[in-house]
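Slide 14.
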Amino acid sequence: MRVGLFDVESWYLKYRNGILNYIMTFVFEYHIAEDLMQDTFVKACTKANTYNGESSVKTWLYTIARNTTMDFLGKKKTSLQLREKFMENQLLYNDLYDNRYSEDKELYTSLNKIKNSYKKAIMLRKIQGYSIKETGEILNWSESKVKTTLSRALISLQKQLYIDEYYKTLY
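Slide 15: predicted structure.
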């Protein structure tokens, strides 16, 4: 499959916001996420000739985004862990998500409080709408791991939503 610069430009216009939001679930800082999103598309442009059409373009791009972000996190692990711990109870997505997302502040606040692997599964399957197979490809997980993790994630999120709702009634 031959991919040209025009294709990558159209992919950028179509997928940049979704990829930015996806990266935000890992790094929690807009400017870093924006840089990583741009790095994702630079890599997609330089490696466009390796795209063979076996998976959807969207899956291929999200895989590049995940790998780019994981490489970054590996290099910046300590400082980002401290930042994540400090910000875990804050919702940083307010100005990033479109109206559909900003209407669900409580959901995202609770989502930020569950395990990172759970958050990834919920974001990709339930919010971004990926299939089990696509989610597994993006996260480099088996389909059974996606199903199991998602099941546990939804239970964990439901508990967290209940806890957050309970504490709201106290204050």
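Speaker note: The CA atoms of residues 1 and 50 lie 9 Å apart.
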